[in-house]
Amino acid sequence: MFLSATQIFAQSAKFTAAMTAAVQQLNEAKTTEAMIAVEAKFERIADAEKTEWLPYYYAGTLKTRLSMQHAGGDPDKLADDAALLAAKADSLSPKNSEVYCLKSMVATSKLLVDPQSRWMQYGAESNKMLEMAKKYDSTNPRPFVLQSIGIKNMPEAFGGGCEKAKPIAERAAKLLAAFKPKSEISPIWGKEIVDGILQDCK
């Protein structure tokens, strides 16, 4: 059975409306409970659509945030769940810079569960994913946002700190200013993080 153009448009409009509401809810989510609720909403949208990468991406991003904050469950399990969501997004949209940013965040969240024993494995994995994100879209600010916050939070003895982070944050700020999202539900985050780094690293 072939879907008519009208049916396809109606499905697309329904998806966009659901995603727009969920992204708005994400932007307003400040508590663990609110983040868990909107993450579940993105997973429901993903289950309903199955061919769209964005709901898997947003659900995975929220799982990594919860893991990093040690909120909403076991951080290792949350990171593993995020990895599965990232894999689904990747299968639907290969070589997608935003998805590789998510993969980098997954590696970072695994690292943060036990930094001393996991630094070598997951630090390298996170950096590799960021380099691939840059390769797939050199205009995407988010790989540079993630790189700058990672370097700022790293001890100076290991090559981190403000001096190293600031030029990367400045580059991210320029890319953010020029960035044009593909749609109203595309990822646009990063400005608050970069503004905070540049404020701290004056």
Descriptive terms for the model:
202 residues; Serine Threonine Protein Phosphatase 5, Tetratricopeptide repeat; 2 domains; 0% strand; globular; disordered N terminus
Describe the structure.
The termini are far apart. This protein is mainly α and 202 residues long. The protein has helices spanning 5-28, 32-49, 53-68, 75-92, 97-113, 115-136, 142-152, 162-178, 191-200. The model is unreliable at 1-9 (pLDDT under 50).
User: What would the CATH topology of the largest domain be?
Assistant: Serine Threonine Protein Phosphatase 5, Tetratricopeptide repeat
Q: Return Rg in Å.
A: 17 Å
Number of strands: 0
The class by helix and strand makeup works out as mainly alpha
- Tally of helical runs: 9
On the 0 to 100 scale, the average pLDDT is 93
* Integer tally of domains: 2
β-strand percent reads under 5%
The CATH class of the largest domain turns out to be Mainly Alpha
The largest sheet, given as strand count, sense and whether it forms a barrel, is:
none
- Measured between the Cα atoms of the first and last residue, the distance is 61 Å
The secondary-structure element order is HHHHHHHHH
The level of helicity is over 70%
Low-confidence stretches: 1-9
Shape: globular
Q: Which CATH architecture of the largest domain?
A: Alpha Horseshoe
Task: Produce a short descriptive summary.
The chain is mainly α and 202 residues long. It is built from nine helices and no strands.
